[in-house]
Specification:
CATH topology of the largest domain: FAD/NAD(P)-binding domain
Largest sheet: 7 strands, mixed
CATH architecture of the largest domain: 3-Layer(bba) Sandwich
Distance between the termini: 42 Å
Number of strands: 25
Structural class: alpha/beta
Number of domains: 3
Number of helices: 9
CATH class of the largest domain: Alpha Beta
Length: about 450
């Protein structure tokens, strides 16, 4: 008869946050049992690379976040292809879909996010996909391969997921139409000028963009396959495939009925601890401290998940680490346009200073408040964006050289000597827990 399996550390989620936590734990505790549970059957892989898998069949071994022997080398037990269906915080147990039970001493919820699915008729038809996991990319790849005829696709959403999926599909010869509810693409990470530069590159690649509208219905054929989409203004777009790319929301089903403190996501303190004893959370499922807005927010980006996992793992293993705070930061290259954006890119009209320059398709913008950088966009030329981002992250007062931040010749030598010397001496932040774990 199966007995309850005990573990010192239970990590639910096998992406950046879960791996970061496991690494930090092992640096402090090389003997305590670790179990990582994931409903995906794969070792940890880089989710941003699923577009490369779809566009050019990048093999899984070239998508791995850590080497193939990572789990064995770190003495980590894995439960892949199964999922946790319930958590008893009082009893320190978790139930798996197969009925087995795991008993833990320390728990990390790194469950990530799930696609936001609109209330649209016809999404159950064959040919409707999401695009956030490797299995999503595999399913789309199989569909395109099996269809054998030129495919037309409608992408619902013009954000990061929608643009990424569009570029991958274009490379596979698919004719793409993006339908975005707001007035421009990438509206959550770019301002109007930067968005227009990206939109021009997208349309030049043959993609049609429809803004200010939504898909109200997906029509099917007699074989229950996608035949067309109908927009909210009555227009019909012929297509054989629909990709839902509105975004993701925190995956909260394990805690929705619990007393754990939550808002849009699970609320954590600066130690990544939740309101439940011995339970931590990180990554897309957690609301963490955001240093621009000075409040807890969702920051669904890969580096934030990893750093949050490191902080959580250190504290789970008895160390003392504090999350320094994060902000939204994206560095992407879609349809040939390099873009970096971070922080508050569209500030309120009062109380902020904005410095920007544009030369053809090169655009730079920096937003300041009280001498501190609170937002930035670099598009077309991102060479010096790292310097500006580090100044923002390290909360350096830039009042004395603020106009130079967007100049063509800006660089380390543009900074006051005491600042550029410190930039050369320390190129990355160093947050260390009391037992010496480098975060």
């Amino acid at each position: 008869m199966y007995k309850m399996k005990k573990t010192k550390y239970l990590i639910i989620g096998n992406s950046a946050g879960g791996i970061g936590a496991a690494e930090a734990i092992r640096e402090l505790d090389n003997k305590g049992a670790i179990i990582i549970v994931s409903d995906e059957p794969y070792p940890a892989y880089s989710r941003p690379l699923i577009a490369d898998y779809l566009s050019s069949h990048r093999p899984l071994e070239k998508m791995l976040f850590r080497p193939a022997g990572f789990y064995e080398d770190n003495d980590i037990d894995t439960v892949f292809g199964d999922k946790v269906t319930g958590i008893d915080f009082a009893g320190y147990t978790a139930t798996l879909a197969d009925g087995k039970t795991l008993q833990w001493q320390k728990l990390l919820l790194a469950t990530g996010g799930v696609p936001i699915v609109p209330n649209v008729e016809g999404l159950e038809l064959k040919g409707v996909f999401s695009f956030i996991t490797l299995d999503d990319a595999k399913a789309i790849d199989d569909f395109i391969t099996d269809y054998r005829m030129p495919v037309k696709a409608v992408i619902i959403g013009g954000g990061l997921i929608g643009i990424s999926a569009s570029e991958a599909l274009v490379r596979r010869g698919v004719r793409v139409t993006i339908v975005e509810m707001k007035d421009r693409v990438l509206n959550t990470i770019l301002d109007e000028e930067a968005s227009s530069i990206e939109a021009e590159a997208v349309t030049n690649a043959g993609v049609d963009i429809i803004t200010g509208h939504t898909v109200s219905r997906v029509n099917g054929s007699r074989l229950d396959e996608v035949k067309s989409t109908v927009l909210d203004d009555g227009r019909t777009l012929d297509c054989q495939m629909v990709v839902i790319a509105i975004g993701v929301r925190p995956r909260l089903e394990l805690v929705i009925e619990s007393d754990i403190k939550k808002n849009l996501g699970i609320i954590v303190d600066r130690h990544m601890a939740t309101s439940q004893p011995d339970a931590y959370a990180c990554g897309d499922v957690a609301e963490v401290y955001e240093y621009i807005y000075r409040e807890n927010r969702l920051i669904p980006i890969w580096p934030n998940a990893y750093l949050g996992g490191r902080v959580a793992g250190c504290n789970m293993a008895g160390g003392s680490a504090e999350y320094p705070g994060g902000t939204a930061m994206n560095s992407v290259k879609y349809f040939g346009v390099d873009t970096v954006s971070a922080g508050m890119v569209v500030p309120p009209d009062v109380g902020y200073e904005v410095f920007k320059t544009r030369h053809d398709d090169i655009y730079k913008k920096v937003v300041l408040k009280d001498g501190l950088i609170v937002g930035m966009i670099f598009s077309g030329d991102i060479e010096k964006s790292g310097i500006v981002y580090n100044l923002m992250r390290d909360r350096v007062n830039v009042s004395g050289f603020k106009e130079a931040l967007v100049s063509d010749d800006f660089g380390l030598v543009s900074l006051p000597e005491e600042i550029w010397r410190s930039r050369l001496a320390v190129t990355t932040p160093s947050e260390t827990c009391s037992s010496g774990v480098q975060l």
